[in-house]
């Protein structure tokens, strides 16, 4: 029986792919067997999905084959869906088999959090995967076609986006940019199209200074977005939404971006979780399990101010690097290192040529922030795939 420890990584998102890449660099030959499990053969950039969802960019710019990111002589890639995690048996049940592990990394990503709002899970679309993005894009185009073929029924060109965080704001910005081209293609009067962004909180884009948020709202209002702040969606229907105020917005397209929870498999495995997120220790380990690490959307870490870190790509990447270091330390009986988040800055796109950004103690808006967004995207491509990936997938214009 092999004495080589088995490491299983579940999920090839930002955290999972960085963990795998750092392990293949750090581990010596035959020091560990590493298996990366992912339901697709590609890794995709969740922070970029709002663009192909709206139809302003190609899906191919949003994904890359995992085989181009890892050394398959060092990392065994298994394409499968995880069905169950059995911590007592140290096994992971897949749709087509079983994997045993000595060390487990849970990097399964998140799921839409509907907060129990009736109808959201059934009637709303979500920006969470390549397939969901493809569906949204085709659905939007179909609504324009139906508008012209069904006596100009207004609900077909009314769009409701629930949530005004990063995903919601970036999506409405891209959608607003796409509307003129769609109107021209389908011979629709642009003044008839309505984009509603509904947010239960009193404002948008938490974490940004008020003046930057105000700038964002001004830019997007000029693009045709109508904001409804401080009002929650009470119910989602096949043909629209009902707000907490009682107002009904008729719309054939509802896109929900109002929250993310951890993967339900985490709770099903018996971990103590809040909305699917586990409060991991300072080394990224699950409580009571020194051999199980949870990173990305499934992990809950508290910042120095006493609030949870938001589940961003930036923190998932840094967790992946730290997780790999601590796995190697565990195998070599060395001291693990504590996770310390280093904020590289925050950037939100507001559509073509527009954005807002905070880097250190400096703020940026407009064209400069839009260029910073591209720099952030290309930096990630450089980290995971080097210059060839930047040249292939990067957006320079």
Describe the structure concisely for a colleague:
The chain is of the alpha/beta class and 397 residues long. The chain is built from nine helices and 26 strands. The protein starts with 5 loop residues before the first strand and ends with a helix.
| Helical content band | 25-40%
CATH hierarchy: architecture of the largest domain: 3-Layer(bba) Sandwich
What is the overall pLDDT average? 95
The strands making up the biggest β-sheet line up spatially as 5-2-1-9-22-21
Termini separation: 55 Å
As residue ranges, the low-confidence spans are none
CATH top level class name of the largest domain? Alpha Beta
- Strands, total number: 26
Specify the structural class: alpha/beta
Set down the secondary structure blueprint.
Layout: E1 6-10, H1 14-26, E2 33-38, E3 42-44, H2 50-54, E4 63-65, E5 75-79, E6 82-86, E7 91-94, E8 97-100, E9 103-106, E10 110-112, H3 120-123, E11 125-126, H4 130-149, E12 158-162, H5 166-186, E13 194-199, H6 210-222, E14 225-229, E15 233-237, E16 240-243, E17 248-250, E18 253-256, E19 260-262, H7 264-268, E20 278-279, E21 285-286, E22 289-294, E23 299-300, H8 313-331, E24 346-349, E25 355-359, E26 362-365, H9 367-393
Helix pairs in contact: 1-8
Family: Belongs to the NADH dehydrogenase family.
Organism: Paenibacillus borealis
Pfam family, one: Pyr_redox_2
């Amino acid at each position: 029986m092999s004495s080589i420890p088995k490491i299983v990584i579940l999920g090839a998102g930002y955290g999972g792919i960085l963990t795998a890449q750092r392990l293949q660099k750090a581990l010596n030959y035959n020091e560990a067997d590493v298996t990366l499990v992912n339901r697709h053969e590609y890794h995709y950039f969740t922070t970029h999905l709002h663009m192909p969802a709206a139809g302003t960019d190609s899906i191919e710019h949003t994904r890359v084959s995992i085989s181009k990111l890892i050394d398959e002589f060092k990392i065994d890639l298994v394409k499968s869906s995880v069905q169950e995690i059995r911590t007592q048996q140290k096994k992971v049940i897949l749709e087509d088999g079983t994997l045993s592990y000595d060390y487990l990394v849970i990097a399964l990503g998140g799921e839409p959090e509907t907060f129990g709002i009736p109808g959201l899970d059934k009637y709303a679309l979500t920006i969470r995967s390549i397939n969901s993005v493809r569906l949204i894009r085709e659905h939007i185009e179909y609504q324009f076609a139906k508008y012209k073929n069904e006596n100009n029924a207004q609900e077909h060109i009314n769009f409701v986006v629930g949530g005004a965080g990063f995903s919601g704001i970036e999506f409405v910005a891209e959608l607003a940019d796409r509307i003129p081209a769609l109107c021209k293609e389908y011979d629709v009067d642009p003044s008839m199209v309505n984009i509603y962004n509904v947010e239960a909180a009193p404002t948008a884009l938490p974490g940004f200074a008020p003046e930057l948020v105000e700038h964002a709202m001004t830019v997007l209002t000029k693009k045709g977005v109508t904001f409804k702040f401080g009002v929650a969606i009470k119910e989602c229907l096949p043909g629209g939404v009902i707000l907490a105020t009682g107002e009904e917005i008729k719309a054939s397209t509802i896109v929900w971006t109002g929250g993310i929870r951890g993967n339900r498999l985490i709770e099903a495995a018996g971990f103590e979780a809040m909305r699917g997120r586990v409060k991991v220790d300072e080394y990224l380990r699950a409580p009571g399990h020194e051999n199980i690490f949870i990173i990305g959307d499934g992990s809950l870490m508290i910042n120095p101010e006493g609030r949870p870190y938001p589940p961003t790509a930036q923190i998932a990447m840094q967790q992946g690097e730290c997780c790999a270091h601590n796995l190697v330390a565990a195998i070599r009986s060395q001291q693990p290192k504590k996770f310390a988040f280093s904020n590289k800055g925050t950037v939100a796109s507001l559509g073509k040529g527009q954005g807002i950004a905070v880097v250190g103690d400096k703020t940026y808006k407009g064209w400069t922030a839009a260029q910073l967004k591209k720099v952030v995207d290309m930096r990630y491509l450089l980290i995971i795939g080097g210059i060839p990936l930047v040249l292939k997938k990067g957006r320079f214009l």
